Amino acid sequence: MKKVGPKRAALLQRLGLMEAEDLLWHLPRAYQAIRQDISIAAEGETVVVCGSIAAVRINNYRPPYRATLLIPHGTIELVWFSGSRAYLAENFAVGAEMCLQGVLRSYRGNLTITHPKILKEAPPEGVLPLYPLTEGITQDTMREIFIANRNTLLDKCQELLPSHIVKRYRLPGLRESLEALHFPNSQDEKTLQSQRSRYHKRLIFQEIVLFELGRKLVNTAQRLRSGKAIATQLTKIVPDIEQKLGFPLTGGQLKVLEEIERDLQSSLPMNRLLQGDVGSGKTAVALTAMASVVQQGLQCVLMAPTEVLANQHFRLFATVLDEFCQVGLLTGSMRKKEREQAYRAITDGSWKIVIGTHALFTDGVDFSSLGLCVIDEQHRFGVEQRAALGRRNPGVNQLYMSATPIPRTLALTVFGEMPISSLQTVPFGRKPVMTRYYQGKAQYKRILQEIQQQLEEGGSIYIVAPLIEESESLDLADATRIQLELQKPFGTFGVELLHGKISSEARNSIMDRFTSGQSRVLVATTVIEVGVDNPNANYLVIYHPERFGLSQLHQLRGRVGRGYEQGHCVLYSPKGCGSEARERIAVLLESQDGFHIAQQDLQLRGPGQLLGVRQWGMPEFTVADPVRDTKAWEFARLEVAEIINSDPALTAPENRQLRDYFTRKQILTIVH
Ligand code: ADP
Ligand code: MG
């Protein structure tokens, strides 16, 4: 692309932008109006002013430096609180004519612009897109790239929606919409600002239709395959498993197992979601169900989202089912030789139970007779992966597990008609985690004291921060700095840093050192959210809880108090937070019930995009929001049902584009 060399390409990649098409879908997060007529501009608006410099005051030793710009209807004060005098002297000589851009303020009755930007030429009055950025790429760079490649980009827009839908809802075209969003017109300013312009609505509708249709295609394909009816005999196997586990299963667990058994015994492939808080006993349920399938001579697989978790599950299964069947492990970081051994044991059927990560669904992994596939922490598993799983193992029974209960009102949107089993019980042997909220720098000392005390008593500590490294644009605590800071007081206890950019091998050994107590303080990003287990860690500090969703905080809180000791969770806002955030945090202080917390989160959730819906296992949407866009969802579902009923293979000419799209995504192939 024009204006993108290797260096910029690398930076764009950090934003997930690999191809031209990705750039098209990198939508502005907001818009900024630029006004030249400052008589109609409001304070805080970005304006462009053209005039000549009437006075310059830069001779004082220290900033602020000042200058006065004479414009047709008055003057504007220019102020610099930092910067080089040489630069100012060079550019702002008395009499110089120029156009400047900046944010208009009124200070002591004077119109003021701080740190104005010199423009080479006055841009036309208008609206500018503001893109999500990464360090090293500025708004100007981003806009420059878009402008230079305008036509190349827009030519890639292919209408996807069938024309009757476009007509029925009077939607603007895809090309027209993306053009309007990236190259905005000033008439559209207001609606663009609200993110509810007709162009936004069109993209939202399209995204929902594609999502719903993709899911329907996969489900239909699955239903068309007859699965194997497996004559499991739970009642026979349960006492045996209970003995191996060392505890009796609860009524709740048995009820869920019965639901699972009914699915297994039917010849329709199972496609069920099991939800329950961390520690509610899902793994024990999965283990029992898998054992019952193995007993019928079939293989089972359990897929975890991370290697840490896969290793953990593997150790548990291998121990508990030691005499019952062979359990194997397959992860991406295994050496080639080990991996090939694993492939062989899977293909010849000697491994009855296989635990692993996504590596389980790559080429080379062919089960001899797969009966049940369990997917733990399902929210990292999208419809494309489900399609791939179904393609490789037609008709296989699938059980999805989620530790983030989804609010009832959202379940249909998120999971469609997937049947749901719930473990509503409080986690086993768990005392409620004592949760407190600290705010302001003054409380930091208290936290240090509490950490000190915990460490002296032999406990381990988690610290969670929203960022890995310091960011210029966000004033937030970062894990790297916290780790450095804590080295001083607690270095002798071992303070380690864990985040997603650390290689999985290094991550495993960090986790090993932490669980074995060699290091006792773990500073991390939310990577520890998923299932990491250290029963000796009873104290957790979460920096900037206002930045996280409630369900996510609840998940994080589930990391502590897993042994017999009292767990503590300190939510810490170094700079305090607003009343809205405090209201949300209060929910967490009062409740330990994941279902209740999720429901409250939904109710209290403002339009704030920040928290997102990812925490509930939503696929990531670009523009759609399942909480906000419920009406659009209703209509989309109707349209999708009509498409599926009248043309399930998408062979009609007007569904041609959809057909190509889902074929490209490898979702459609399994229909035939
Ligand atoms: P989840 O997978 O939902 O996080 P687990 O199945 O790992 O939950 O269970 C959490 C803890 O509770 C484990 O230590 C497990 O051994 C224990 N546990 C599970 N079921 C029972 C039960 N019926 N009685 C007592 N302890 C149980
Ligand atoms: Mg689990």
Second-tier CATH architecture of the domain at 225-423: 3-Layer(aba) Sandwich
User: What do we call the CATH homologous superfamily of the domain at 225-423?
Assistant: P-loop containing nucleotide triphosphate hydrolases
| Biggest sheet, spatial arrangement of strands | 11-12-10-13-14-9-15
Question: Radius of gyration in whole Å, from Cα?
Answer: 29 Å
CATH hierarchy class name of the domain at 225-423? Alpha Beta
The number of helical elements comes to 24
- Report the bound ligands by name, code or SMILES: adenosine-5'-diphosphate, magnesium ion
Look at the structure and give the mean pLDDT.
88
C-alpha end-to-end distance: 38 Å
Q: What kind of sheet is the major sheet? A: 7 strands, parallel
The overall strand count is: 21
Oligomer: single chain
- How much helicity do the residues have? 25-40%
Q: How would you portray this structure in words?
A:
The structure is a single chain. Among the domains are: 36-119, Nucleic acid-binding proteins (OB fold (Dihydrolipoamide Acetyltransferase, E2P)); 225-423, 3-Layer(aba) Sandwich (Rossmann fold), CATH 3.40.50.300; 434-591, P-loop containing nucleotide triphosphate hydrolases (Rossmann fold). It is built from 24 helices and 21 strands. Helix 7 (174-182) packs across helix 9 and helix 20 runs antiparallel to helix 22. It is globular, with a radius of gyration of 29 Å.
